[in-house]
Design brief:
The protein is of the alpha+beta class. Helices cover 25% and strands 15% of the residues. It contains two helices and four strands. It has helices at residues 27-42, 94-104, and strands spanning 11-13, 23-25, 50-54, 75-79. The chain has a two-stranded antiparallel sheet with strand order 1-2. The chain has a two-stranded parallel ribbon with strand order 3-4. The protein is globular and about 35 Å long. The protein starts with 10 loop residues before the first strand and ends with a helix.
């Protein structure tokens, strides 16, 4: 996919005193993300082992998108209600990180 949230060409970082300093997304990032989503939906199913860490209460990505339907390989969805959109930056991030480590074999 052409852009990730850490791609400096598509986002800039805030060093302000906001509650959640970090990437500030630009319209370029939003456009690249929309194109990547369209390509993902139009393409063949992904042939890869997949782990989806989900927050069914996510205000940005709807819970209906947290599915394995586009993946042909083994796929697992683990839900973490109430942790927000960025699971790895949540105060309760230990379990999502542990699940990822297990998935990766660490």
């Amino acid at each position: 996919f052409p852009a990730l949230t850490t791609d400096d060409g598509y986002c800039r970082f805030s060093q302000t005193e906001r509650a959640n300093p970090g990437p500030q997304f630009t319209w370029g990032w939003v456009n690249a993300a929309a194109k990547a989503i369209d390509a993902f939906r139009a393409g063949p199913p992904i042939q890869a082992r997949t782990l989806i860490l989900s927050n069914p209460d996510d205000a940005i990505v709807p819970a209906s998108a947290h599915t394995c339907e586009r993946f042909a390989g083994p796929c697992e969805v683990i839900s973490y209600p109430g942790l927000g959109h960025e699971l790895y930056t949540s105060a309760e991030r230990a379990e999502p990180i542990a699940a990822t480590r297990r998935f990766l074999g660490y």
